[in-house]
Design brief:
Chain lengths: 332, 332
């Protein structure tokens, strides 16, 4: 499913440049006479879906319309002709995304695409939809810069993402410090190596932590756990009575975290430590939420790569997924 | 934080009767002249929040308006005066729920409550909001029957939940088989005991699996992992390259699962087994989705209780949460 001779290290090293390049990608302007949307759904699975989830988390507190990521083959019932539906599939052939998109077409939604081609690219061309066009041939998860910033550019053009957010994103890309991300990612990898990893942050960080988990899954071949504050304080915290020194809690902390949750994190970190677990606090660099988001993505990518290299597993290989897709395609 | 001498076994044994009784709870009828809502938000944390999450999952594919569970202190930006906001807090004093509710009041939302009293009960009385009134004094997680069915009754009265769903729920309660749930829950506990538990199901089952996780957390003092199909096939599956016989995958399977996902589950279960993990398939009883939901909740409750008893831990005790709340309250 992936091209030979791809170096995940080179792809991750190039993430900053990929983001800078993505900012130059031209996105077709949406029709000038459109009505305001009732809501937005961003369809996508895995590495093609996480950008929509991150965007939804980033705008949840402020967007006057629901912006929802859909990582499923079923379209939510409320998505109708007054909604914008963006289908994000790197290959353009993701089964679940195409199924949900088909339903969106039937309902008469305004449509757009983020893709390198495939069936999705063909339908977008045919329909004249706005498209974020990506070069193909790489693992979808390595194209987060292009897919996420492309999605943001698209939603900025549709006036779903504010000018202020878009400017903050552009400044964030310009400020990214590649060597620093690599260094902090490597230190993080060393700190969690050999332990069962539990990733925690404030609620709006859930999708960013999920990106970290997905990279640990696919690049490092590791299982990891994501939960968020304040909800985890009402249940998972008690499960830590059986936590111990085999566990490591990675706590993503930013100045954006709710003041009460900052206090909850202090108290909870102490509980983890009392159980014998290591607690690693990660504080992303950047002067805005958007800048810190991009920094944290890159640090997480490095963590997953270094863990793969230290364990001597191939970060590109995803043979379990290839096996699944091959078996599924024989049952079309 | 909880009354002395509470037996979690008695509370779980009584869940069927609790549900039957909850169906008789009278809910104040909403005003007859109300306008259709733009969307619904159900606020709640932990055991008081999971009912809203389950309801949102159950209606996602069919509801013509977004129904969103909010387990956070921050209200989503899109929730406005055209929305219904239900605050669910068993104690009526949950900090996060009251914070989000305060914002909902400022925005002029239509309001309702599910509570045993506290500050929420007082404000609901003062405002004349529809209230699902619960008896107090028990652990919130033991009151799922009352809080979930009360929420459903409320949303049925507001015409958010359809007559057909409500009737299916009532039939589901009548059909519940207590001894069978206990027996299947005990068998499930024995099958997962001593292993690291990974809970899986189709996307609309996420919140039900989350309920299982929460019960494992709070009653059994265990950590567990929840992910869903088809998304887990795009990332977490690869993490299973490091899975082994110390892991057990619990696969919740129902006739409602998407046909393609049923196939994905077959293939994935084989991958788990090839890694040495046990795979336990759970198929809830019942003739509708709603009946199967209630059955599965009860089975999961039993699983968590039996695991607690076999490990000789107190299923009622939640000292880590008590410690957190006490420390937080000294920083009000």
């Amino acid at each position: 499913m992936t091209a030979p001779n791809i170096s995940m290290r080179q792809l991750i090293e190039g993430l900053g440049a990929q983001m800078a390049e993505a900012l130059k990608v031209s996105v077709m302007r949406p029709p000038a006479d459109r009505k305001p949307f009732r809501g937005v759904a961003v369809l996508g699975m895995g590495g093609s879906g996480i950008g929509g989830a991150v965007l939804a988390d980033m705008v949840r507190a402020t967007s006057p319309m629901p912006v929802q990521a859909v990582s499923d083959q079923v379209l939510p019932g409320w998505v109708d002709a007054d909604c914008l539906v963006v289908a994000s599939s790197y290959s353009g052939n993701t089964e679940e995304t195409l199924a949900a998109l088909k339903e969106a077409e039937l309902r008469g939604c305004t449509l757009a695409a983020v893709t390198s081609g495939g069936a999705l690219g063909a339908r977008a061309d045919e329909g004249g939809w706005p498209v974020v066009q990506m070069p193909g041939g790489n693992p979808p998860r390595s194209q987060f810069g292009r897919s996420f910033l492309g999605l943001c550019a698209l939603l900025h053009a549709f006036e779903v993402l504010s000018d202020a957010s878009w400017e903050a994103l552009k400044r964030g890309v310009a400020q990214l410090d590649g060597p620093s991300c690599a260094e902090r990612g490597e230190a993080l990898a060393q700190a969690v190596e050999g332990k069962k990893v539990y990733l925690y942050g404030d609620t709006p960080m859930r999708s960013l932590l999920t990106r970290w988990r997905q990279q640990l899954n696919e690049n490092s071949k590791l299982l990891a756990n994501v939960e968020v504050f304040p909800e985890m304080n009402h249940n998972e915290l008690v499960g830590w009575e059986s936590g111990n020194e085999a566990c490591v809690a990675v706590l993503l902390r930013t100045p954006d975290d709710h003041a009460r949750t900052q206090l909850r994190m202090d108290i909870t970190a102490k509980v983890f430590q009392d159980q014998g677990a290591d607690v690693i606090v990660v504080e992303p660099d950047g002067d805005t939420r958007w800048a810190r988001l991009l920094d944290a993505v890159w640090v997480g990518d490095w963590m997953s790569l270094v863990l793969a290299e230290r364990a001597d597993v191939d970060p590109v290989d995803i043979r379990f997924i290839d096996h699944l897709k091959n078996t599924l395609s024989s049952h079309a």
